[in-house]
Design goal:
With 58 residues, the chain is of the alpha+beta class. The protein contains one helix and four strands. It binds zinc ion.
Length: 58
């Protein structure tokens, strides 16, 4: 018998905050206006959220 191996690689994306590559299935995703953003976890999501909320002092 021949075993059929699936060669489907899990889709990976880079976290918006720390740019770590993670499988999409494990990512935390947030739907933005035009696209979906991915985070490796809630820690990074919180960081991003705080950045968005804080007024940029330039
Ligand atoms: Zn991250």
């Amino acid at each position: 018998m021949i075993e059929q191996k699936k060669l489907v690689e899990p889709e990976k994306i880079a976290c918006e905050v720390c740019f770590k590559e993670i499988p999409i299935s494990e990512a935390t995703s947030v739907k933005a206006t035009d696209y979906i953003m991915y985070y490796c976890g809630l820690d990074c999501y919180d960081k991003w959220k705080k950045q968005e909320e804080e007024p940029k002092s330039k």
